[in-house]
């Protein structure tokens, strides 16, 4: 078996295939979009712990503004992500001139944290059944600033403290509706009880790792975003797929509802041999006249074979609306089973049916009106 055959076989990790140029693959055909994703938490019981749920999320959530390929990780802005059903947000920040700005690595994204959070507050005020998890990370050193990063964050959050839960324990959904739970990925003085502490986050580990906080919160994380040697797109996606699938299966098998799982689907590669952007890894690309599926459709297909109620934890993605339009909806539906699952699907599809019927009646009314005008 040659190397290309081995790479193709590696796609079985998520049950997908490499498609030859000009070929068709039924699994890549889009399924209906769910218009009620903006309020999907309204049908989840108040007693449900956030750690016991499947929460669609985005990696580098604010990086929809800069279009440079190795900076951009999203096409949807924050309100669009919220309306699509995203409930976990990965916010990378830096402080410059005493102002907290959104960044992605060395790049400033042209928006402040305060402006971004204001959009979340407005949205939550109109969607009081929903709850958000926001991780704030200090992603670069301060520039020309006289205040500490932690103090700048506290000042920013304190202005709208009613929207925040900064406790260091796992909340139930009923407690968090209309609010944001903070995951704190920055250090500072006197911050022991300020949000859930994830400052012991490891950088690019090859294996999942677990954070044990001082307040008995346990979080297992998969964040393997870059591989040590040159990897062609099919090989990289196959290896990343195994990383993601392993933690999905661990989350499902774990009966401890208090145990958090955070699973990053994102990755990139930049070296002399390959320059693979986050978008290519998420959506796929051409490799020697064959289309290699990206992580998003592979993840969707993997989930589609496991349709019963399952806890996958937080699943953080790049461009989650692309590659297959129902990936977010598939993750959302894993929170439901039996009659509730069927009722939710029926309700969401019924909305689409009503819209189509209204359009049909409108077209018929126009034709009827035109016919009366043309009659002698």
Describe this structure in words.
This protein has 376 residues and is of the alpha/beta class. The chain has 2 domains: 3-336, Alpha-Beta Barrel (TIM Barrel); 339-376. It has helices spanning 3-9, 78-84, 113-126, 149-158, 173-176, 233-253, 278-283, 295-304, 327-333, 338-374, and strands at residues 18-20, 54-58, 88-96, 99-104, 107-112, 132-138, 164-165, 180-185, 196-197, 209-212, 218-222, 260-264, 269-270, 275-276, 284-287, 290-293, 313-317. The strands form 3 sheets. Strands 2, 3, 4, 5, 6, 7, 8, 9, 10, 11, 12 and 17 form a 12-stranded mixed β-sheet that branches. It has a 3-stranded antiparallel β-sheet with strand order 1-16-15. A two-stranded antiparallel ribbon has the order 13-14.
Radius of gyration: 22 Å
Uncertain segments of ≥5 residues (pLDDT<50)?
A: 1-12, 15-32, 349-353
Provide the helix percentage: 25-40%
The backbone outline, from C-alpha atoms, is: globular
Please give the oligomerization state of what you see: single chain
Largest sheet: 12 strands, mixed
Strand portion, in percent? 15-25%
The first-to-last residue Cα distance is: 77 Å
Number of strands: 17
CATH topology of the largest domain: TIM Barrel
CATH hierarchy, class of the largest domain: Alpha Beta
Q: What is the string of SSEs from the N terminus onward?
A: HEEHEEEHEHEHEEEEHEEEHEEHEHH
Give the domain tally. 2
Question: How many DSSP H or I helices?
Answer: 10
Average pLDDT metric = 86
CATH superfamily of the largest domain: Phosphatidylinositol (PI) phosphodiesterase
Class by SSE composition: alpha/beta
Assigned CATH architecture of the largest domain: Alpha-Beta Barrel
């Amino acid at each position: 078996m040659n190397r290309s055959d081995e790479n193709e076989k590696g796609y079985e990790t998520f049950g997908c295939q490499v498609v030859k140029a000009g070929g068709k693959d039924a699994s890549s055909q889009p399924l209906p979009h769910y218009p009620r994703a903006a309020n999907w938490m309204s049908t989840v019981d108040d007693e449900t712990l956030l750690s016991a749920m499947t929460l669609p999320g985005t990696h580098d959530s604010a990086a929809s503004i800069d279009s440079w390929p190795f900076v951009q990780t999203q096409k949807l802005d924050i309100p669009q992500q919220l309306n699509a059903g995203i409930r976990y947000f990965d916010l990378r920040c830096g402080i410059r001139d005493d102002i907290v700005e959104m960044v992605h690595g060395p790049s400033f994204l042209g928006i402040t944290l305060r402006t971004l959070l204001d959009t979340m507050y407005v949205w939550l005020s109109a969607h009081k059944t929903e709850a958000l998890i926001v991780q704030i990370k200090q992603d670069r050193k301060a520039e020309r600033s006289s205040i500490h990063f932690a103090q700048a964050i506290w000042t920013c959050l304190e202005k709208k403290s009613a929207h925040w839960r900064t406790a260091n324990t796992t909340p139930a959904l009923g407690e968090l509706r209309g609010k944001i739970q903070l995951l704190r990925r920055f250090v500072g003085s006197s911050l022991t009880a300020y949000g859930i502490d994830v400052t012991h986050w490891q950088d690019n580990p090859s294996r999942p790792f677990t954070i044990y906080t001082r307040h008995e919160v346990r979080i297992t994380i998969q964040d393997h975003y870059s591989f040590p040697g040159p990897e062609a797109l099919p090989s990289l996606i196959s290896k990343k797929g195994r990383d993601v699938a392993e933690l999905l299966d661990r989350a499902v098998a774990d009966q401890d509802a208090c145990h958090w799982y955070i699973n990053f689907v994102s990755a990139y590669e930049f070296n002399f041999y390959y320059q693979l952007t986050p978008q290519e890894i998420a959506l796929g690309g051409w490799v020697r006249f064959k289309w290699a599926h990206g992580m998003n459709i592979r993840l969707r297909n993997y989930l589609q074979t496991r349709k019963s109620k399952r806890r996958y934890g937080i699943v953080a993605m790049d461009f989650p609306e692309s590659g297959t339009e129902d990936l977010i909806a598939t993750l959302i539906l894993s929170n439901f089973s039996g009659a509730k699952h069927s009722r939710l699907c029926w309700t969401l599809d019924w909305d689409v049916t009503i819209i189509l019927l209204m359009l049909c009646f409108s077209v018929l009314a126009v034709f009827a009106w035109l016919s009366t005008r043309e009659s002698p």
